[in-house]
């Protein structure tokens, strides 16, 4: 009998612990039935209640048999045991009532992914499409096609703009190279007084003056200026292709005549540089031995007879100092003495 009572007490304690755990879970997450699952703990509680009733009835029968054999004191003990069983049943009913109340007071589940409750009335355009039997997919496809067309048009415009800018850059570079030549052969009386150099011609063109007064386009350049510009462009192309030797060939002229022409041309260049220095004009640098290109260079076409530089000075510029044999020595020889690195110490 003592062992049966102990087992029943352990079962009731275990069931109470399960019930408390279930109530705590439902208070935080809600009941399993509301989530769509089957609550099997309720079946266990019902089965445990029936088993507890059967065990209690067996205990009462045994107690009645013992009461017939024992004294009235044992009758008092059986009455106290029955009172304890009734109290435990009352506690179990209270726990079940609390659990039912907790289930009714469970948390409210809110779904954010559900459809919106607000009704949006269709627009007039949508109504017309629906009445005509067309779906909204046609309009979406048309909008996408129009956007693609706009993108393609913008790409074509950008490509055309890049080509135009490239063409303008090429024309500007040619104009800068040929500005001195054009100013030398400028025969317009209206601009001869105002334009005295290629720089003035370039600035006048960049400031946006009338294009009729400035001859820098191919269809506006005529006569010797046109021939010289074309020759200059051809010479530039041939130099790029590696045929500079054929270009640098000079016309056959007697030696004393060529020396006199070089001397006279150098005097003109010195006079031009002196006038520029007195007038505060900064001229571009020229390589050592080369002739500065001035107005007489283009007008008299003197480069065909004397060349672009003095040959002797070109040789001096191109020659390199012989450094001798490459021998592994200690340190580095300078004008201040022998310099030895720290790693050699």
TrEMBL record:
GO cellular component annotations of the record: nucleolus
Alphabetized InterPro entries for the sequence: Ribosomal_biogenesis_FAF1-like
Keyword Coiled coil applies: yes
Composition skew (Basic and acidic residues), residue ranges: 86-97
Keyword tags: Coiled coil
Top-level taxon: Eukaryota
Biased composition (Acidic residues): 63-84
Residue ranges of coiled coil: 141-178
Annotated region described as Disordered, given as residue ranges: 31-122
GO biological process per UniProt: maturation of SSU-rRNA from tricistronic rRNA transcript (SSU-rRNA, 5.8S rRNA, LSU-rRNA)
Record-linked PANTHER family: PROTEIN FAF1 (PTHR28096)
Protein name according to UniProt: Protein FAF1
Organism encoding this protein: Naumovozyma dairenensis (strain ATCC 10597 / BCRC 20456 / CBS 421 / NBRC 0211 / NRRL Y-12639)
Organism ancestry: Eukaryota, Fungi, Dikarya, Ascomycota, Saccharomycotina
Gene designation: NDAI0G02010
């Amino acid at each position: 009998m003592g062992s049966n009572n102990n087992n029943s007490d352990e079962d009731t304690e275990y069931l109470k612990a399960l019930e408390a755990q279930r109530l705590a879970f439902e208070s935080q997450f809600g009941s399993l039935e509301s989530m769509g699952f089957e609550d099997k703990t309720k079946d266990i509680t019902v089965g445990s209640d029936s088993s507890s009733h059967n065990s209690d009835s067996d205990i009462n029968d045994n107690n009645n048999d013992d009461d017939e054999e024992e004294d009235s004191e044992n009758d008092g003990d059986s009455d106290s045991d029955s009172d304890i069983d009734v109290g435990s049943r009352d506690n179990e009913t209270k726990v079940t009532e609390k659990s039912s109340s907790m289930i009714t007071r469970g948390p409210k589940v809110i779904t954010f992914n559900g459809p919106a409750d607000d009704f949006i009335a269709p627009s007039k355009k949508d109504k017309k499409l629906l009445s005509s039997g067309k779906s909204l997919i046609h309009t979406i496809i048309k909008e996408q096609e129009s956007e693609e067309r706009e993108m393609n048009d913008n790409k074509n415009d950008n490509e055309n703009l890049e080509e135009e800018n490239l063409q303008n850059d090429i024309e500007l570079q040619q104009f800068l190279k040929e500005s001195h030549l054009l100013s030398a052969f400028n025969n317009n009386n209206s601009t001869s007084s105002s334009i005295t150099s290629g720089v003035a011609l370039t600035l006048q063109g960049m400031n946006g003056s009338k294009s009729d007064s400035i001859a820098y386009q191919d269809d506006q350049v005529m006569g010797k200026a046109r021939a010289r510009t074309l020759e200059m462009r051809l010479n530039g192309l041939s130099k790029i292709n590696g045929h500079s030797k054929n270009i640098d060939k000079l016309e056959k002229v007697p030696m004393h005549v060529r020396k006199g022409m070089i001397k006279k041309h150098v005097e003109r260049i010195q006079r031009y540089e002196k006038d520029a220095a007195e007038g505060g004009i900064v001229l571009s640098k020229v390589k050592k031995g080369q002739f500065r290109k001035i107005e007489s260079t283009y007008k008299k076409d003197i480069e065909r007879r004397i060349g672009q530089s003095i040959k002797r000075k070109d040789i001096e510029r191109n020659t390199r100092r012989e450094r001798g044999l490459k021998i592994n020595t200690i340190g580095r020889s300078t004008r201040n003495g022998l310099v030895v690195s720290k790693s050699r110490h």
